[in-house]
Recover the amino acids of this structure.
């Protein structure tokens, strides 16, 4: 490509050059979190990966540093109530079988999504399978409050553990599909995930400070919406903003994208449930 | 005459080295309306660019270069080409194409997240709106 006239004057602040995440350390209950680390080899175009926490204002960051201030914890408590609540034709609760409580799931979130019996499974799938097949209860809506409260409760059990999602073996074809979606320029604005979160992280887009679009803190509590936001809901919002037809929450496309995006955070600590503006 | 001028359709635009020589609407642009389009609606240029002349407006983006002095760096024809379809000037740029109606992947119905229906696809800016934005850009001179 030719050097355009503006480049000499305006190279500062351009794609990939800005490094505008801050250098604060996330610490919860005296425990420090890894919010910055070398990018895994499969993330070809980044040398360092950062948690979205590093791009937020000090006020928003602080809410995540104390569980009493973290508004997401109310929903985690609701998740605990749901865990113990009997529901469905079999008269069972999660706790009827999982007598050890949600602590049985320590580490699970850090390895999700994963492939089971040839199918790519995300946390919402595990939860609904158990509700429908073993409890005889109604499935929960993907981004519904009860579902995301349970996803957050199970996710919290892995907080502080590094993300380590498998991308090889049976996962490989799903991962490739997710990668393809990540780099496709959708909609009338013709923007891909990478255009915003890889080429322009650290830059402002209107009033928003672009992060690397990591999901190690999901479900996140969004102050603007005053509720827990699912991963697929966030994906949908970002694709909609390109004036595109989005994929559905729970679709094969979004599960593949979730696997790919989760793997981009391998090495960052799980922060679930994170707080965002 | 200007009054009877017919707009060039998005599919008929001729680019020369990324530039478009003549007005797309056949009419001159209105710089004041161009300045308004920089801020809102389907233009929203300051989502990505800062412009000192519009510093009374909050939240200028950093995804594209600052546009101060764009009227010195580029001819009117260049600016028209850049706004109509920046990909003709800058290969693979993230800047959207504002006067283009085909070649999209999963085109949506504006910001609804739903598929675009059977209706004719409208460009992000009309021919006259492109001219208005260009008329504003040529006023962006250094000093
Ligand atoms: C009837 C018994 C039963 C009930 C009720 C039940 N589970 Fe399970 N669950 C199991 C068994 C058995 C396993 C281990 C085998 C497996 O992974 O399917 C398991 C495993 C899991 C796993 C871990 C899967 C993995 O890959 O490590 C999760 C998460 C889970 N259950 C969540 C729930 C939740 C949430 C509920 C309530 C909505 C629930 N379960 C209700 C029996 C039950
Ligand atoms: C037009 C620009 C744009 C595009 C394209 C885009 N995003 Fe985003 N995304 C944003 C903005 C702005 C935010 C809010 C600020 C932030 O966290 O980066 C955001 C936030 C996110 C977050 C939340 C991060 C956090 O820490 O809370 C995730 C995850 C995400 N995006 C993933 C994606 C994926 C996956 C795609 C492609 C399917 C995508 N984005 C496409 C602009 C975009
Ligand atoms: C999503 C981001 C984005 C939006 C929205 C956008 N641009 Fe750009 N623009 C860019 C980028 C990035 C470049 C640098 C070209 C490249 O990619 O090589 C650019 C380049 C330009 C240039 C040439 C740079 C110079 O000043 O020398 C002009 C002029 C321009 N844009 C005008 C506009 C106008 C007018 C609008 C709105 C109608 C607009 N842009 C909307 C991202 C954007």
């Amino acid at each position: 490509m030719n050097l355009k006239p503006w480049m000499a004057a305006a190279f500062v602040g351009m794609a990939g050059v800005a490094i505008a995440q801050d250098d604060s350390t996330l610490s919860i209950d005296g425990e420090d979190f890894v919010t910055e680390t070398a990018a895994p080899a499969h993330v070809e175009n980044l040398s360092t990966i950062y948690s979205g926490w590093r791009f937020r204002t000090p006020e928003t960051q602080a809410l995540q540093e104390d569980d009493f201030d973290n508004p997401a914890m109310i929903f985690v408590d609701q998740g605990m109530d749901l865990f113990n609540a009997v529901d469905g034709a079999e008269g069972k609760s999660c706790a009827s079988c999982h007598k050890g409580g949600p602590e049985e799931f320590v580490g699970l979130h850090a390895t999700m999504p994963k492939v089971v019996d040839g199918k790519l499974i995300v946390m919402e799938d595990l939860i609904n399978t158990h509700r429908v097949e073993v409890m005889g209860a109604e499935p929960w809506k993907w981004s519904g409050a009860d579902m995301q409260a349970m996803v957050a409760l199970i996710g919290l059990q892995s907080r502080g553990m590094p993300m380590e999602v498998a991308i090889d073996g049976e996962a490989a074809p799903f991962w490739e599909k997710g990668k393809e979606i990540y780099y496709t320029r959708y909609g009338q604005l013709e923007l891909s995930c990478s255009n915003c979160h890889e080429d322009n992280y650290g830059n402002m887009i209107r009033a928003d400070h672009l992060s690397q679009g990591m999901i190690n803190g999901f479900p996140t509590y969004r102050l603007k919406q005053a509720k827990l936001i699912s991963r697929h809901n966030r994906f949908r919002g970002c694709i909609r903003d390109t004036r595109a037809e989005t994929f559905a929450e729970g679709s094969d496309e979004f599960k593949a994208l979730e696997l790919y995006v989760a793997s981009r955070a391998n090495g960052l600590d799980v922060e679930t449930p994170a707080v965002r503006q | 005459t200007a009054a009877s001028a017919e707009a060039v359709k998005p599919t008929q635009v001729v680019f020369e080295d990324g530039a478009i020589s003549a007005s797309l609407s056949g009419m001159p642009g209105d710089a004041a309306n161009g300045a308004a389009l920089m801020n809102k609606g389907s233009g929203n240029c300051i989502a990505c660019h800062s412009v000192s002349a519009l510093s009374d407006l909050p939240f200028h983006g950093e995804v594209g270069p600052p546009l101060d002095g764009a009227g010195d760096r580029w001819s009117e024809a260049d600016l028209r080409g850049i706004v109509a379809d920046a990909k003709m000037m800058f290969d693979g740029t993230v800047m959207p194409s504002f006067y283009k109606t085909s070649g999209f992947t999963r085109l949506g119905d504006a910001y609804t997240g739903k598929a675009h229906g059977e209706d004719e696809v409208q460009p992000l800016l009309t021919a006259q709106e492109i001219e208005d934005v260009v008329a504003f850009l040529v006023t962006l001179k250094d000093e």
Remarks:
- Chain B has a mean pLDDT of 94.
- Chain B touches chain A through 37 residues (CB under 8 Å).
